[in-house]
Design a protein that fits this description.
This protein has 278 residues and is of the alpha/beta class. It is built from 10 helices and 9 strands.
Length: 278
Amino acid sequence: MQGKVWFITGCSSGLGRVLAEEVLADGGVVVATARKVETIRDLETKYAGRALALPLDVTKPEQIAAARDAALAKFGRVDVLVNNAGYGVMAAVEEASDEEIRRVVETNVFGLLAVTRAFLPQLRKQRSGHILNLSSIAGIISTPGLGIYNMTKYAVEGVSEALAIELKPLGVKVTIVEPGPFRTEFLAGSAVFAKTDIADYAETAGKVKANLAGAAGSQKGDPVKGARAMMQAVESAEPPLRLLLGAAAHRRFQDKLAMLEKDFKAWEPVTLGTDYSE
């Protein structure tokens, strides 16, 4: 990590906070950002000269520009951009309000895009760098009660895959990070449970929401190990495009592969029969 400058969003808690601490402990340089900057000021005290704490709400373009400019003015470059800021909405698709949907899309999708696009000119100029976009296993396979969150993470997957191809000839790498459930504040603090509750979804989305509400603090994922895995990917000569984190994520990924294969094979004759005849 020594010498690398990391810019990490959403460092007030969770994987973002742990990642910032692990990189700093390994000798790296970190620009840590959070909406409430007072929650991360201690990093500057503990790692004087190698940590810079900045306020950043990723839905506010003026704060993005200010944070980028401050990071480059202080350290001259950014080697690793980590788009970690985000949260979940727990609701059946019909239950979520327009406001609840727009707010999570603004943060998880448009916020990630805005931060990424703000740094792309610098990364292209350097002809080097690595972008870690925090998706989720929810960006690969959907779950009742998480449809709106799934939508935002599927968007992250799609744009990141294209971005990786665009940036590869320029020396900039992209990794999509897909954690399963980790023992962070995701469920206990940042997640939003929709105000509307529709009885018809009690056996599908309702059960998932109830399970999630009681799962905080018992998730199997270790945030420190997750952070170290991301650091390992950055240090790798050939980092993965997608990095699954946790046994639960790996199991759900296998479920998705099986589901896709089942439908694609069953409907293969219909699929192949839709082209013009030669």
